[in-house]
Amino acid sequence: MDKPFLKILANNLILKEKIDTTERRAKDVRPFVERLISYGKKQNLASYRLLIQKIPQAAADKVYYELAPRFKERKGGYLRFTKHTLTRKNDGAKVITVEFVK
After folding, report:
1. CA nearest neighbour of 100 among 54, 48, 37
2. Cα(first)–Cα(last) distance of the chain, in Å?
């Protein structure tokens, strides 16, 4: 993991299930979180330990026990991006809402 913010951003997204972030960070976190959901869908001890290794315990528990069973029938595309016309005041970066598909 070469980007240090991914673990923190993924943790917040998993626990809150909806966050606002910049467009670049949203595009970076999508493959990371979707891979974590795919690990959780395997429902075995090895995948659970892999989740704990990559994200904090509370987020790993939520992925393994809540999110993975919710997306059991879904092949991929667990996240939805909603673009806004808002930009951050200090640097003008575009703001995007990232949430799990219901």
Report:
1. 37
2. 28
pTM: 0.91
Q: Is 10 exposed, middle or buried (0-12, 13-18, 19+ CB in 10 A)?
A: buried
Q: How far apart are CA 42 and CA 95, in angstroms?
A: 33
Q: In 51-84, which positions are buried (b, 16+ CB within 10 angstroms) versus exposed (e)? A: beebbeeebbbbbbeebbeebeeeeeebbeeeee
Whether the pLDDT of residue 2 is over 80: the answer is no
List of domains in the chain:
5-100 (3.90.1030.10)
Read off the DSSP letter of residue 12. Answer: H
